[in-house]
């Protein structure tokens, strides 16, 4: 058994199971490498951060003793409420609810921009635990990946707020409607994203360019880059529907300055990708995992300065 770096759940590589999800033969090592490489590249859990853990409105400080080197989520009791810290000062209510959309309905939340923190209450402990499990491997990114936040179980079992602001109530309503239409009413959740670049850049992106963009949201199985009707497009297949959903919410609308193009993303109707050629426009990362040199290049590209 291999214990994940964040201590959330053990890996059984002999069974090819990660997070309780069955993998096809040969996928487990590649999926584990994806996650460990991302953690190494971002230094998640290793960087020293200094956060103000108090709020004038809602106290989110924990007086429990912290064990050095261990994530706080490993000993705080499970709760429907998650504590998010390390948020940029200009984080919006919409950005907070987007973090929860792939996992379940939101009961309530509070955002304190002054301290860069938020408390978000899901409808059950199980949903909150699933959300925490994902973000401990793939920390939520902000400002184009320049900043990341940290999640943990809150010491609160529920939020009892005296009042809810209009931006918060509107964000919750939007998020829950999104979850209803995209998840609750869609049992076959898509794992493939279709990416458009607008306007079409002069220099075509290759599969590694897309890999570096989407790698931070989950294990990628296959990528196909192509042009149709003069538009630059790509298909990106994730191992997990949650990863695909989180990537869509985070990356859709982002601008690629080097290419002067904006990414438009939607769920694809394809359930999986079949590669018909092997060149710089497509790659099966299960059949052809990253080489040692590619791993090193990726770490250099992702390591924060």
UniProtKB/TrEMBL annotation:
Keyword Repeat in record = no
Supply the Pfam families for this chain.
RRM_1
Molecular function (GO) terms for this protein are: RNA binding
Q: Where is the RRM domain?
A: 193-270
Keywords of this protein's UniProt record, alphabetized? RNA-binding
Identification of the protein by name: Regulator of differentiation 1
